[in-house]
From TrEMBL:
Sorted UniProt keywords: Cytoplasm
Gene3D superfamilies reported for this sequence: Rho GTPase activation protein, YVTN repeat-like/Quinoprotein amine dehydrogenase
Family matches, as SMART domains: RhoGAP (SM00324)
Subcellular localization(s) per the UniProt record: Cytoplasm
Origin organism lineage: Eukaryota, Amoebozoa, Evosea, Eumycetozoa, Dictyostelia
GO biological process: small GTPase-mediated signal transduction
SUPFAM superfamilies (UniProt xref): GTPase activation domain, GAP, Quinoprotein alcohol dehydrogenase-like
Protein name, per record: RhoGAP domain-containing protein
InterPro entries, per database record: Quinoprotein_ADH-like_sf, Rho_GTPase_activation_prot, RhoGAP_dom, WD40/YVTN_repeat-like_dom_sf
Cytoplasm keyword on record: yes
Naturally occurring in which organism (per UniProt): Heterostelium pallidum (strain ATCC 26659 / Pp 5 / PN500) (Cellular slime mold)
Gene Ontology cellular-component terms listed: cytoplasm
Keyword ATP-binding applies: no
Highest taxon of source: Eukaryota
Amino acid sequence: MGMDIDQYLSLPSLPKSRIKLRIIVEANGVQYEKSIDGTQEHLKSFINKINSKAKKEEESIKRNMVLSTATSSTTNVLIAKNLSQLSLNHHIHARNQSKEALADPRIFGVSLDTLMERQKSDTTTKIPIFMKHALKHLFVHSLDVEGLFRISSSQADLVARKVSVDKGELQFSKDDNPHLVTGLLKIFLRELPEPICTADLYDLFLASSDQITKCQSFDMIKKTLSMLPPNNKQLFQHLCHFLTFVAANSHVNLMNHSNLGRIFGPNLFWKKEVGQLDMNQLQATSEKVNVLAENLITHYNDLFEEPTPTAFSGRLYLQSKMLGHKKSVQWLALIDQERKVCSLDTLGLLKVWDSQSATLINEFNVCEQGALIYSMVCASNDTIWVATSQSVSIWSPSGKMIGEAPGEAYSLTESQHGDIWVGGNQVMNIYSLKDIPTEAGDHPIKPIGTDLFNQNVFILALCKVGKNRIWGCSSNKLLYIYDAKTKEILHKTEIHEKRPKRIAYIEFEDYEAVWIGGDEGTFQILNANTYELVHKIENAGWDKIFVLAPIGREMWTSTWDIVVRSWEPRTRDVTGEIKGNHSDAISAILEVPNLKGTGDPFIWFGSFDKSISTYINKGAADRESKWSNAKRSVPRTVRIGFSSRG
């Protein structure tokens, strides 16, 4: 009677009789076989030789993989570390096949579960890495592309790139054709062994489409979505979430919910039919899946209650990304009792948005062609002030010009006493808001005060500080500190910065400081009361500073390296870094209150890539509640100072 070798080895004492072994080793597609017999002690040396040879093979393969010189052939070696393994040949072979599957770099035609098993060590990525890179690339670089997903790339390019992806080349570059990326994404969905909706739930999804059409009810679709396997549901949600951003910018890319539904319906919902379908049935099914896909995009927030992990950038939860500006968006400011946000680009296109929903209300141009725009503020009387190389112009939110004062102007700020300070070429002009009308008309705009400077001296940045101070950074590297009421210069001191174009004031509890930065990339922190330099943060490789913005009890900065950093002002420690949703640096940051009263505030980013993104600052309401003594500034633009990236 035959006995399993594990039973044999588990005997209390092994007999001294001879043991017969038949060993098979497979390497480089060739099988090597040997039958031997002997005592257990005699066979140990032979088994050790096999193990030593196998170990050398493994080390050689690892070295070749590191050097990227591994050959296309595969090596499978059965390692017999002890005699008990020899009775489990079929289990060893199965494990080797599993390892081969994990090492297979193919992406297309592979099940979601297999793809996710390969990357299980990466706990932060919930969808196949290829899809993660594709969606991120399209979000950052291609939301403004007309006909996104509708226009196809060349078939030859698709085939060639598909081969590259299947070899493990998963990254995309900024210069990649967006239609090539969308084509690969659709091929990936179509070539899944099973549709993302799964064969088992296909009919339920179709039935839920009928319920949406007839009853306007989403109960069935929500229940069906909850029944999806975890990997399918994650990819479903990530894809639908991304498509909401595409549809939200349909005024630019011409791809609304309906157009996207027609494209993604057949790619998300399909079934391998055994028999033939007549044309009527095929058409009816097609209409159902199109409606279903459209509704998944349109009603995303109602159907998916849990946010996708990719929507988070640190503490910020991505809400929207808005396109439509023609040049870099360098100014953001609140107006109309914080109910609206104004954004201005360097071509002079000003857009007015709803501050809570980020929907566009109005847009108009605020300067003549050829003029350089340097600054913008929204005043407490709901007028918009724009400083350019030709004049200071004043506008209503409806787009009507109220007045204009000729002369080059670089910087703007509203004082604590309702005056607008304008830093110009060799002069500081001050205008009282009480004298400025709020309706359009041919009104003379005259300053109530003027301060002259030396020749070729410009005030590049202005900021109100405390209860009665105005600070101004000049082109001759001097800091001017004014009494906001008497307009007198109280103090002058040198700034160790070639072009100090950014200035911001932050206060909470017993801390008050002014941060100054510029093209040299250094942060100078001054005591707001003594005017003394407290600390200097050297350029750590981030190069130019574009934004200084006080957010709560932190100072947020944006620099040339496309990173937004939050700082603890007292310790000067970086508490967070935010990047990844824009292809260029952030040029404006604005904190927008949640007017519901209890929710977390919003953060708006304007970028050199001509887009605006909005976020919920998760947990900020709780953090603010802990700071009962924290003081909040009145509505302001948080990017104060001279513009221009050069």
